[in-house]
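Why do we bother with holo predictions? Because pocket geometry can differ from the apo form. Keep that in mind while you read this record for uridine-5'-diphosphate-glucuronic acid.
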Amino acid sequence: MKVTVFGIGYVGLVQAAVLAEVGHDVVCIDVNAERVEKLNQGIIPIYEPGLTPIVTSNFQAGRLRFTTDAAFGVEHGVIQFIAVGTPPDEDGSADLKYVLAVANTIASHMKSHKVVIDKSTVPVGTADKVKKHIEQVLAERGVSLSFDVVSNPEFLKEGAAVADCMRPERIIVGTYNDAPEPLMRELYEPFNRNHDKMIFMDVRSAELTKYAANCMLATKISFMNEMANLAELLGADIEAVRKGIGSDSRIGYHFIYPGCGYGGSCFPKDVQALIRTSEQNGYTPKILQAVEAVNNKQKYKLPTLVKSHFGDDLTGKTFAVWGLSFKPNTDDMREASSRVLLEELWAAGASVQAFDPQAMEETQRIYGVRSDFILSGTKEAALQGADGLIICTEWQQFKAPDFDLVKQQLKQAVIFDGRNLFDPERLKQRGFHYYAIGRGE
Ligand code: NAD
Ligand code: UGA
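The structure, written out:
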């Protein structure tokens, strides 16, 4: 099947590669010429486990092509995916300018029937806007062509994106009528073999399903962070509580890990966008407001613990930071909790020696060269001469460090752990001050 994907970011590139992997003929369009050129040279612009081999092999097989030539892209696929960004605008609503720009491009170049599939996360009502926009441009061109608009939100997780797209738990398809169903079934047939994972519904429900899913997950996390803060006050251990409640299958173990706040390009912006949508419709979304407020505060948890130990003025102190990306297995720094930590430490006068397995380049791009910031080559190098260790992201390689070495390298044996990686008792026995989330000192 011929497929075109607009937007070669985390979602567009992974989706395109996976569709090519099962045999579809995929053309990817992006306005970022540098990105397109790099991909054509075999350079993958993002870190995502398992992505490089499938991009490379399908590119070599000619099933996956990258270009800035939008007219060619529109001509190519019956299916036209919109997978561009929907960042927050000034008031937190999702900015639809990139989505509507693609709708405009498709409408300007199409010469035959197209199925326009919105994969970006967009507020309820966006499919209507895309549909109207295409109708308007076609009318201006004076042509009469049929087209369908479909809402097909994406649920992949960064760090597991290839696996999530290869084996989706569900494929949500919102349509205005039954016409696109056979084509959508054919497109996803290779991913829909064992049992039917395709759930068809109206477009508005599909659009809301995406926000509801992310907001529910964000709610679980903020709820647990609130319980962790309460556990500290009450002398309870949140890790015991987590296991205790997770064992109830109605609650489950997923997404109840307390920590230093959720980050990433999705939860923060999607919670915010649904709050704005609610408000614009005259509804006050109290739960969502609380989810956002708890998370914004939780991102200050690590710097607050550091200051409670060392005092508010951190001038002359140096901290080792392990983990910068917003979660493990990605180089993505968007809304990462580490950014609040770094900026708070610098503001209090401290210097930082940081290490991350994948996000060093991105961190360098964001913060540039600073006299109070060293990006260390290894996690051990980051420790050298530091006053304490702070852990922001739970990369596997941080889970069993050589504690004797850690103690030897640090000026003070103190660890601030934003991901609850270690047993507090064991660390105490080894002579560490160990601060975690919801576990007391
Ligand atoms: P991204 O920023 O990584 O990539 C977007 C790409 O679109 C960029 O390469 C940009 O140059 C390109 N683009 C912008 N305007 C364009 C145009 N007119 N024509 C062609 N290309 C254009 O974004 P992302 O993280 O892949 O997210 C895309 C959408 O998917 C967002 O709505 C996001 O909320 C949603 N989403 C993201 C994830 C995730 O984990 N990143 C998961 C599910 C859903
Ligand atoms: C999230 C959703 O999980 C995906 O289903 C969705 O498609 C995506 O957003 C999106 O819409 O873009 P992602 O942001 O890649 O995926 O990563 P998650 O694994 O959900 O983690 C998000 C944040 O929550 C991370 O900062 C992580 O550390 C934090 N988190 C996660 C916790 O603090 N506790 C948990 O128990 C789980």
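The domain at 2-206 is CATH 3.40.50.720 (Rossmann fold).
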